[in-house]
Amino acid sequence: MLAWPSFQARRAQERVAAGTMVVTNCQEKIQHWKKVDNDYNALQERLSTLPDKLSYNIMVPFGPFAFMPGKLVHTNEVTVLLGDNWFAKCSAKQAVGLVEHRKEHVRKTIDDLKKVMKNFESRVEFTEDLQKMSDAAGDIVDIREEIKTDFEFKAKHRIAHKPHSKPKTSDIFEAEFANDLKSKDLLADKELWDRLEELERQEELLGEIDIDSKPDTVVANGEDVSSEEEKEDQNINVNMMHQVTDSLALSSCYNSLTNSELFNGQVNSPLNYSVNGSSSYHSNEDDDDNNDDGGDSENDHDTLGVEDNSIPTIYFSHTVEPKRVRINTGKNTTLKFSEKKEEAKRKRKNSSGSGHSPQELPMIRTPADIYRVFVDVVNGEYVPRKSILKSRSRENSVCSDTSESSAADFDDRRGVLRSISCEEATCSDASESILEEEQENHQKKLLPLSVTPEVLQLGGYLKNLSLLTVIL
Amino acid sequence: MPSRGERPEDGAGPVPAESSTLHKEELSSKIKEQKVVVDELSNLKKNRKVYRQQQNSNIFFLADRTEMLSESKRMKTWHQAKF
């Protein structure tokens, strides 16, 4: 997997160059200030002995090149430049005190410069190491995730609606299911929830262990990885590939990744990019951009785990966090996936279909229930909206998705709904009339008229409700 | 850095500059300088005056010849030891 593209290498080179420049700059400045300090020392020495004699025989400079022998008198009277062309007349001892004070300032400056130099030196060294490694590997980084085989499931297995039904396999990784519980659809709800909680606990425990056991940290781009995962997760959340254990496959059913969860640093996706196995990964934020003076780059302890082979290795680990899902355990709150499909087909055949499912009327108490029931019309086919409804993952119960992705998709659905055409307007008179009634009654009608037959039929479902607030 | 300027005049003796550095090349050049200083000082007539330049400025203070000679010799051996 190309995890260290060439532009990173270039960036590393630039960083090295900039760092060395800073270091040499600091060195020059330090040299200069050391000289200044030296001068002050000599001056101090001279000043301390100056009042010992009344006068000194000196060579008086005449211009830059000529000298005249002369005498230095008033040996105790020293005029000190205070700056801005202000002078102070003081004794030799006082002058010594002033010099001492200035030397203190110089010493402080030198110390600061030394600190800066030291920080940049270490940064340059680190970047050079990084560069060496990436050069050696030729832009290829090995990413490994060590998977613990005793990983427990954290959520219940998916239960097939029909014991031998197969999930949709298009656009998805090849699915390797550990099928212990998959075909059982007779588990009691209570048992399931108990198990779920137990597994969640185990998961948290495991997550902590994962954090502790991986000291090798890597400067890696966590956000890219996470966003990729989310995109793919929308499509393949239903059927995930896992080589490992039942638990991870199970957790995949319930996880819909959200941005917030992803950016927690611990990745939620049970995806397993099986390139070279897997790796553990810490999204150690890139500290190199900290350019504070004096350097907070003490934090730059990022190191690549260099293996015995020349390819640098990034260790990566997924941890799965429990998805926060509010689940109603009512029985009749949703249509199951297969039933929906059948119903859709039935409706199509039935030109004057009433729109009611004779078997089950979904119990709709909240607007959210509507969406659980709702299906898309795509090319004449009824397609459940996996991103929100996730009907496949709700076998016997209704999960109202409280994660943020649902909010995001809420808007998408709104847009989709309004763009759906009425090709199959097999509206019954009853449902139409209902709709018209509602149109009359409710001024604030947000739903456009070009609505799918499903909605109209939904109106039929909702005839029990006093207020049709179909706010999409 | 302490330096002594050369002044070719009656009663005066020239003293070449000396400085201390970390690098070997500069150190060797310093040693050469010291050698010159010592030679010059030892070859001065007795009535010559030796002036010592105040660091970083253009003032020359009168200094004792014999004292200067001994000091230069010391510096030379010190530099050689560093080298």
TrEMBL record, chain A:
Source organism per UniProt: Bos indicus x Bos taurus (Hybrid cattle)
Region described as Disordered: spans on this chain: 207-233, 274-310, 325-363
Record GO terms (molecular function): chromatin binding; protein phosphatase inhibitor activity; transcription corepressor activity
Protein family: Belongs to the RNA polymerase II subunit 5-mediating protein family.
SUPFAM superfamilies in alphabetical order: Prefoldin
Name this polypeptide is given: URI1 prefoldin like chaperone
Subcellular location: Nucleus
Sections of the chain in a coiled coil: 103-130
Pfam families assigned to the protein according to its UniProt record, in alphabetical order: Prefoldin (PF02996)
Cellular component GO terms held in the UniProt record: cytosol; dendrite; mitochondrion; nucleus
Origin superkingdom: Eukaryota
Keywords from the named record: Coiled coil, Nucleus
A biological process term (GO) from this entry: negative regulation of transcription by RNA polymerase II
Comp. bias intervals (Acidic residues): 285-297
